[in-house]
């Protein structure tokens, strides 16, 4: 009878341990899906969401490897000592829970440092800048936050356009300086102002108003650069359309079906 009770407890412990592991892994997969959608706090752009998703995927992979490693170690120990018993099952379950908790929380996705924003390729620069801007949103006034959200979409589009351009071009250097240096530098200067002084009028306007106005100018400048970069593609499309129309004429037009 005692053996039967012991076996029952071992079985129950194994089921509880497996249930906890399944639950935590399920929550980890849900967290990964959430990161793919932009995280708990909505990402301002696709590049920052991409970095979050990559970070979450790395966490999930480490958690899965840790669980597999612990289970394999428990199986080997069971074979060597002819069973690990109830205590071993509980220890295995606790080890799995500890590993999932540890690898689920660490390493955390750190906000990029200000000097590191304007480095690497354009795709990386845009992603890091978006992550940095997201981290600054809670400290910004509401009108500025709306412009920052708009900047995320603009940066995504601008990054796509710059990927096919020679990095040594003056336009690329100008964009990198604007996005990777001037924009974050301006927000960083604002954040160094004590909160109780940000609403005080100075030189005809408050720091809150000055920041919002400056961000609006940056947004307008990015829009202008996007239009300039797209001008060549628009002209090429128009030329190709006229060429096809000239060469094939009405052949491109589907003939009307008889009634």
Task: Describe how the helices and strands are arranged.
Blueprint: H1 2-36, H2 46-80, H3 85-105, H4 122-136, H5 142-162, H6 170-191, H7 207-248
Helix pairs in contact: 1-2, 1-3, 2-3, 2-4, 4-5, 4-6, 5-7, 6-7
* Integer tally of domains: 2
Give the N-to-C terminal Cα separation.
90 Å
Radius of gyration: 28 Å
Report the sheet-strand fraction.
Answer: under 5%
Shape: elongated
Class from helix and strand fractions: mainly alpha
Task: Describe the overall structure.
The protein has two domains: 2-105, no CATH class; 114-249. The chain has helices spanning 2-36, 46-80, 85-105, 122-136, 142-162, 170-191, 207-248. The chain has 259 residues and is mainly α.
Features of the shown structure:
259 residues; 7 helices; elongated
Short description:
With 259 residues, the chain is mainly alpha-helical.
């Amino acid at each position: 009878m005692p053996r039967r009770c012991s076996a029952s407890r071992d079985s129950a412990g194994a089921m509880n341990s497996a249930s906890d592991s399944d639950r935590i892994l399920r929550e980890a997969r849900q967290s990964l899906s959430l990161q793919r959608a932009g995280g708990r706090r909505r990402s301002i752009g696709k590049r920052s969401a991409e970095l979050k998703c990559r970070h979450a995927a790395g966490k999930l992979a480490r958690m899965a490897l840790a669980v597999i490693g612990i289970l394999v170690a428990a199986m080997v120990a069971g074979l060597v000592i002819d069973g690990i018993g109830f205590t071993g099952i509980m220890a295995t379950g606790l080890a799995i829970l500890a590993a999932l908790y540890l690898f689920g929380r660490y390493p955390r996705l750190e906000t990029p440092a200000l000097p590191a924003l304007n480095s690497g390729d354009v795709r990386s620069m845009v992603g890091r800048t978006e992550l940095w801007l997201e981290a600054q949103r809670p400290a910004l006034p509401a009108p500025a936050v709306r412009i920052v959200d708009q900047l995320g979409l603009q940066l995504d589009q601008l990054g796509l356009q710059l990927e096919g351009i020679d990095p040594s071009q003056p336009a690329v250097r100008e964009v990198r300086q604007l996005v990777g240096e001037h924009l974050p530098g301006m927000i960083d200067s604002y954040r160094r102002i004590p909160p109780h002084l940000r609403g005080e009028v100075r030189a005809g306007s408050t720091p809150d108003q000055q920041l919002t106005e400056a961000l609006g100018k940056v947004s307008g400048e990015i829009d202008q650069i996007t239009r300039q970069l797209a001008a060549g593609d628009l002209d090429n499309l128009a030329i190709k359309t006229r060429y096809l129309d000239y060469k094939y004429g009405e052949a491109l037009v589907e003939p009307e079906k008889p009634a």
